[in-house]
């Protein structure tokens, strides 16, 4: 009886897109891709270029780094606030680059260029953060003071504190994620700008060594802990980033030293730990998928364990598998408790599509106990998540701002709910923004392409700025979705 119920559940999950399509549901994945990349222009810090398309934004953070005599302008604000947190920014960059590596050929040329521009906006900044030997700048902006104000980025007058880690103090997580971002970006830029790719790769190896020599979590440093926690504390340990950075340098260089690193440090650095998550703080599932490519290509069986780990992760996503334990909402959305839920749905969807490609190119299928899972089935599960986010859900709402006619109007995002500096050039001071935050009116500035935190386990979503976990967009929700949309823009008819 139990098996019948489980089988019925997966059938319903996979049939839902077909059922909705019979009622006229259609998604323009290319349009959604365009918007998902455009979103990053709304997150820009620094001096905005003349071709800035999100034109309600203005220059901001132009003095970042002056207190330490370093130019730290540029980069991205992580979410709806005005702080630059390097840990999630570097992860965002890695995923944007990985999207180009895996799915760049699926992107229209114009969007491939836009994605590379989005990557470079971040890597140019991250290069500045590691410009000094034995030092890494990990954050700009005091989050406590920032979060106590409702200010536009263009007006902010809170402290732009620079948080720094000097050797031998530890910063393995941020440094190695930055190394991963540089290595992945070097591959993304290799054909269009080989000189820049070389710079990124050289810097990646140097930052990789810094992370290995100074092992430990950056949030364990007492001088910066109050600034990075509880926002982007390293909750899951720094060991996964050490392996993640090595895996990316192996991919970018094919160097045997990096292969040996991920072989020899697998157990000591916890590759056997929780592999059932992927995000800015936990790289285990992404690490396993990334490394498994070499195994599936038939060339590197000494790292077979990583493929086995990737297989195990994929099987947890299959409801009829005996190892399934990922929850789905009644409407079919992948659900994991804590924080903004769509960050899990977008990262897992990305891994589903990447792994499906790896399996297909090696003519293999996934074995989940007594059932066999084809690449096509993995893609169907991924497509269900994409379609849910774009509007095939119980509310009929697109959780991407600006896509379709029904999307969140009151997102938790300062620059969106406060009047644009172009329309209201007078300064809006720290507490003056509260009037706009508490307004019942829709946000005046549309942050096109932003994916909000999204609904919970019951598919419920109230369009409210107060519920920041549901209504606040982040760069690391959007970044993996870029790759997923690129795939479906070229392959829209997978059912």
Automatic annotation (TrEMBL):
GO biological process, one term: cellulose catabolic process
Protein name (database record): Endoglucanase
Signal peptide, first to last residue: 1-24
Catalytic reaction equation(s): Endohydrolysis of (1->4)-beta-D-glucosidic linkages in cellulose, lichenin and cereal beta-D-glucans
Record flagged with keyword Transport: no
Keyword Disulfide bond belongs to the record: no
Entry-linked Pfam families: Glyco_hydro_9
Keyword vocabulary terms for this entry: Carbohydrate metabolism, Cellulose degradation, Glycosidase, Hydrolase, Polysaccharide degradation, Signal
Active site residues of this protein: 463, 472
Enzyme Commission number, as recorded: 3.2.1.4
Entry GO MF terms: cellulase activity
Family: Belongs to the glycosyl hydrolase 9 (cellulase E) family.
Domain Glycoside hydrolase family: from-to ranges: 29-485
């Amino acid at each position: 009886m139990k098996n019948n119920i489980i089988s019925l559940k997966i059938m319903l999950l996979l049939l839902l897109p077909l059922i909705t399509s019979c009622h006229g549901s259609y998604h323009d994945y290319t349009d959604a891709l365009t918007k998902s990349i455009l979103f990053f222009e709304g997150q820009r810090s620094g001096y905005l270029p003349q071709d800035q398309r999100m034109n309600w934004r203005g220059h901001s953070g132009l003095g970042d780094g002056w207190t330490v005599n370093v130019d730290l302008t540029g980069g991205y604000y992580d979410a709806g606030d005005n702080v630059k947190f390097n840990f999630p920014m570097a992860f965002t960059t890695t995923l944007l680059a990985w999207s180009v590596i895996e799915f760049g050929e699926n992107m229209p040329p114009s969007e491939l260029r836009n994605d590379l521009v989005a990557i470079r906006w971040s890597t140019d900044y991250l290069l500045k953060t590691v410009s000094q030997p034995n030092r890494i700048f990990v954050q700009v902006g005091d989050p406590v003071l920032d979060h106590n104000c409702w200010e536009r980025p263009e007006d902010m007058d809170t402290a732009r504190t620079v948080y720094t880690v000097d050797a031998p103090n530890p910063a393995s997580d941020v440094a190695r994620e930055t190394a991963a971002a540089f290595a992945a970006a070097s591959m993304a830029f290799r054909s269009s700008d080989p000189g820049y790719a070389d710079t990124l790769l050289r810097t990646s190896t140097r930052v990789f060594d810094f992370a290995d020599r100074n092992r430990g979590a950056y949030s364990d440093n007492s001088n910066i802990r109050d600034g990075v926690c509880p926002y982007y504390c390293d909750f899951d340990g720094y060991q996964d980033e050490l392996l993640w950075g090595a895996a990316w340098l192996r991919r970018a260089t094919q160097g045997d030293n990096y292969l040996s690193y991920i072989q020899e440090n697998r157990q000591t650095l916890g590759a056997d730990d929780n592999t059932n998550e992927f995000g800015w703080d936990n790289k285990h599932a992404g690490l396993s998928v990334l490394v498994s490519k070499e195994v599936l290509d038939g060339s590197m069986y000494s790292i077979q364990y990583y493929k086995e780990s990737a297989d195990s992760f994929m099987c947890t996503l299959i409801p009829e598998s005996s190892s399934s334990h990922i929850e789905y909402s009644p409407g079919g959305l992948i659900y994991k408790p804590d924080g903004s839920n769509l960050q899990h749905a977008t990262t897992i969807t990305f891994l589903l599509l990447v792994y499906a490609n790896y399996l297909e190119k090696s003519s293999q299928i996934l074995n989940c106990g007594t059932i066999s899972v084809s690449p096509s089935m993995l893609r169907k599960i991924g497509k269900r998540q994409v379609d849910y986010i774009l509007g095939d859900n119980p509310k009929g709402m697109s959780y991407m701002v600006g896509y379709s006619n029904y999307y969140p109007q009151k997102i938790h995002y300062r620059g969106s709910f406060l009047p644009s500096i172009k329309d209201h050039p007078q300064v809006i001071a720290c507490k003056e923004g509260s009037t706009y935050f508490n307004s019942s009116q829709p946000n005046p500035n549309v942050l096109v392409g932003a994916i909000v935190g999204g609904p919970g386990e019951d598919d419920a979503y109230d369009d409210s700025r107060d519920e920041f976990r549901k209504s606040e967009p982040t760069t690391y929700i959007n970044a993996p979705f870029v790759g997923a949309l690129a795939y479906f823009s070229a392959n829209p008819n997978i059912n």
